[in-house]
Amino acid sequence: MTTILEEPTTAATILIVDDAPENLNLLGRILEGADYRVRRQPTGRMGLTSAVTSPPDLILLDIRLPDIDGFEICDRLKQNPDTKDIPIIFISALNDAGDKVRAFSSGAVDYVTKPFQAAEVLARVAIHLRHNAFRQQLEMKNRELERLATTDPLTGILNRRSFTSYAEHYRARADRYHQSGFGVILLDIDKFKRINDAFGHDIGDRVLVEVTERIRHGLREVDLFARWGGEEFIILSPETPQEGAIHLADRLRRSIAGEEIAPAGQVTASFGVAISHGGEDLDGLIRRADFALLDAKEAGRNQVQSRE
């Protein structure tokens, strides 16, 4: 599928930094005539403060300023995470090749010389605003693709693949630094097929989302939580002894069963707990938790079992 990036539609804000009033006025009139919002600053410090306090969409920056030269301003803006992506076009009466090289080296995207040609200024401003808008859209789409690749689309929590990656990283780190054991909890919604058969998959999905929220509210920020598959979920609880993991699992069990989920009624879940004490691979640990989960189901469901 081809993704089409949209043209920017809102009027951009452009900051002009130049110590010559006639340049500020001329550039301002040119840009305002093209419906841009314009801010004018006559010194380097004022321009820098304006850019950091309220980042514009693009900066027209004079190289020769009385207090801070344009190169230093550009360097500072590029080192600031909040302003590093703002396109900067240098302006100067000089036409020295060394200045141009230094301008691009400091992070500028373009360079225009005085006296200004309105058509040239507007063309350069427009193309760099468009490039920057496309870059921002592309970054947003890439972040969304990354989120979709690592999360379960229904519940919004980690998917199996991303959980395994994070958990393996944590297990290796725990072994390396000889950290205390961590717990793995597997849980499965009891008789979930009956819910789907009786009420339909939309209600089944609602149950999965509600159970997810009840579990999420009972976990710490450091705990990993993922949908393992179907109606099965998995939790990794760092630096947790067996008694603590069992207590956590039972608290979550009671939270799930405590209030009915309409129209399905009371929903329960079975839990299996296993604790790593170092040296065991992740697959073996999860396998023990899975055996404990089977023990819980065979013992009557809606309970917690553990395996050493």
TrEMBL record:
GO terms for cellular component: plasma membrane. The modification 4-aspartylphosphate is found at residue 62. Its EC number is 2.7.7.65. Residues 180-308 form the GGDEF domain. One of its GO terms (molecular function) is diguanylate cyclase activity. Gene3D superfamilies: 3.30.70.270, 3.40.50.2300. InterPro entries: CheY-like_superfamily, Diguanylate_Cyclase, GGDEF_dom, Nucleotide_cyclase, Rev_trsase/Diguanyl_cyclase, Sig_transdc_resp-reg_receiver. It is an enzyme of class 2 (transferase). One of its GO terms (biological process) is phosphorelay signal transduction system. Its cofactor is Mg(2+). Keywords: Phosphoprotein. Signal peptide: none annotated. PROSITE patterns: GGDEF, RESPONSE_REGULATORY. Residues 13-129 form the Response regulatory domain. It catalyses: 2 GTP = 3',3'-c-di-GMP + 2 diphosphate. NCBIfam families: GGDEF. This is diguanylate cyclase. It comes from Thiorhodococcus drewsii AZ1.
